Amino acid sequence: MFRPIAGPEVPATQQILVRRIQVTEGLLFQQLQLEAIDDTPYAFGPIRERVQGATSEALARQAAHYATSKTEAVFLAMQQSTPVGTASVHWEAEQFWLSFVWVHPAWRKSGLAQTLLAHAALWCRDTGVRTLYARVLDENPHALRFYQREGWQVVGQEPWPSKPARTRFIICRPLDEGIA
C-alpha cells in the first residue's frame, strides 16, 4: 500500500511515499524516533533513553517485527531515502492503538499526517479491526483538535504514567466509516 503525496507544484524530489517499515530499517527508525523525541519531548521524551540505548541487534529485531507482525506495524513517510514522518499501530488490552504519530516540521499542514493515519487505519481495517484507539496528552491541544477534525472522539481519560499529574485523553475512531 503506497500512496505518494505530490502534485503539479511539488517537484519529484519532494514527493513523499508512505509505506510500512522494512526489515532492514532498524537504525533508520531509531534515528527518526530520536528526531521526533527532540522535536516534541513533551509527547515522546520519556522513551528517549530506551530508544537511544538500543543495540543494533535490538533495532534489527524491532524493525523485523514491525515489518512482519500481524498485531503491530510502523509506517514511514519517506522523501526519497529520508524519513519525514511515522505512525505506529499496536495491540494492547484487546484493542488496536495508534501511537507515535509524528511529522517533520517542514511537512506539517501538508496532508502527510492524514495520509499516515489513513495507512494505519486501512491496515487495521484489513486485519478486521473496526475501531482504532489512541492517547493524546492534555498538553498537546493541537494534536487533539487535529484528531477530532479527522473524526476521532474523546471516550475517556487517564493519568499519564510517567507524569501522574498530567492527563491523557483516550480517543477512538470507527474504521467502517470513510477512510481517506
Helix-strand blueprint:
Blueprint: E1 3-5, E2 16-20, H1 26-39, H2 41-44, H3 48-52, H4 56-68, E3 72-79, E4 82-92, E5 95-103, H5 112-126, E6 131-137, H6 141-149, E7 153-160, E8 163-174
Parallel strand pairs: 5-6
Antiparallel strand pairs: 1-2, 2-3, 3-4, 4-5, 6-8, 7-8
Describe what you observe in this structure.
Helix 1 packs across helix 4. The protein is built from six helices and eight strands; from the N terminus they run ββααααβββαβαββ. It is of the alpha+beta class and 180 residues long. The chain has a single domain (3-174), classed as Gcn5-related N-acetyltransferase (GNAT) (Aminopeptidase), CATH 3.40.630. The chain has helices at residues 26-39, 41-44, 48-52, 56-68, 112-126, 141-149, and strands at 3-5, 16-20, 72-79, 82-92, 95-103, 131-137, 153-160, 163-174. The model is unreliable at 1-8 (pLDDT under 50).
CATH architecture: 3-Layer(aba) Sandwich
Topology as a string of helices (H) and strands (E):
EEHHHHEEEHEHEE
Radius of gyration: 16 Å
CATH fold name: Aminopeptidase
State the major sheet: 8 strands, mixed
Enumerate the spans where pLDDT stays under 50 for 5 or more consecutive residues.
1-8
CATH superfamily: Gcn5-related N-acetyltransferase (GNAT)
Beta-strand fraction estimate: 35-45%
Which geometry do the CA atoms define? globular
First CA to last CA: what distance?
13 Å
For this structure, what is the CATH class? Alpha Beta
Helix content: 25-40%
How many domain regions?
1
| Estimated structural class | alpha+beta
Mean pLDDT: 87
| Largest sheet strand order | 1-2-3-4-5-6-8-7
Count of strand segments? 8
